[in-house]
Design goal:
By secondary structure, this protein is α+β, with helices and mostly antiparallel strands. Helix content is 66%, strand content 17%. It has a two-stranded antiparallel sheet. Strand 1 and strand 2 form a beta hairpin.
Length: 70
Amino acid sequence: MSRPAISQHLGVLERAGLIERTASAQWRTCTLRTEPLDEASDWVERHRGEWNERFDLLDEHLRRMRRGTP
């Protein structure tokens, strides 16, 4: 992977708030920020039950369709 490609990917991660970049002389340090990932994980967990219920209902509906029952 080229340096410009790496820099572009790091820029995307930085704009998303997933990393912080600092400069010290010629060195560049990237630090992972876990807070946004924790927030995303919490959001998924809050909605997981609802999604599972909906997928179960869809699964049952598809089974009935295959059997030809309403």
